[in-house]
Specification:
Largest sheet: 4 strands, antiparallel
Radius of gyration: 22 Å
Number of strands: 7
CATH class: Mainly Beta
Shape: elongated
Mean pLDDT: 80
Number of helices: 4
Distance between the termini: 39 Å
CATH architecture: Roll
CATH topology: PH-domain like
CATH superfamily: Pleckstrin-homology domain (PH domain)/Phosphotyrosine-binding domain (PTB)
Amino acid sequence: MTQNPQTEPETPAPLDSAEVTDLGALDQGTYSQLRTARNTARLELDGAWHQISPRYVVSQIVQNVIFVAFIVAVAAVLALALGQTWAWIPAGVIVVITLITLVILPRQAKAIGYMLRSDDIVFRKGILWQRMIAVPYGRMQLVDITQGPLDRAFGVSQLKMVTAAATTGVQIPGLTQAASEALRDTLIEVAETRRTGL
């Protein structure tokens, strides 16, 4: 009785530049170097990290300044017009927390990045508390681009990938319009070819 030689499992072809709709758009107008935390074990990944646009930081600063102005106005009306001086305490706490958030926002934005690999897209964010998520192309159910009014004014958008498992959904903020459209088209195209059963 002869034995059949065992065949090695097929490995999927790597994601090449032909599958990416507009690879150059992913890096136009973005940060040039991904900020990483010190003293952390490096995960060797194949591919190149792409980052978000610095205009995301400007958009967030403008939105938070408008929010702070609104909080101060409400506290002023309550304290001066209605005699509720206690309103300055929660307003002050909210303003301080918002200002601290604005100080660390540029560092956080530089730590946001994504990488297109042969089987999945890897998303990372965070300096002290790092989060890294790998989303398989075949598991994607929806790729959505959203923009608020100020995001449109600054030319940035957010790309959201939804999978069957809610915990693996990814939102990439601060993409340029060209990068978000190129990434959406690429993910949809690659997901169709790598579709797997859920």
